[in-house]
Amino acid sequence: MIVGIARCECMIYDAGSLKEKRAVLQRIISRIRQKYNVSVSEVDYQDAWQRTAIAVAAVASAKVPAEREIQNAIKLIDSFPEIERTLTDIEWL
């Protein structure tokens, strides 16, 4: 069994309030949950308007399927024009 965790720091430049930021995050997180077999959550900067950190975790019997799910989730984050991924760390356990 292998666990992969990707931590993506992102900027939401057009967010003028926490409410606007959370609306963007809710759309992204719910879409990831619908499309991929991963766990996803905002893990840092909850009180910052334009900055966030999203964690995506996948568990599989081998590294390749876990990595595929994580990479697909990261690509989906990148497909949203209102958010910019600035830093990504992937850890394997």
Automatic annotation (TrEMBL):
It comes from Neobacillus piezotolerans. PANTHER family: DUF503 DOMAIN-CONTAINING PROTEIN (PTHR36441:SF1), HYPOTHETICAL CYTOSOLIC PROTEIN (PTHR36441). This is DUF503 domain-containing protein. It comes from the Bacteria. InterPro entries: DUF503, TT1725-like_sf.
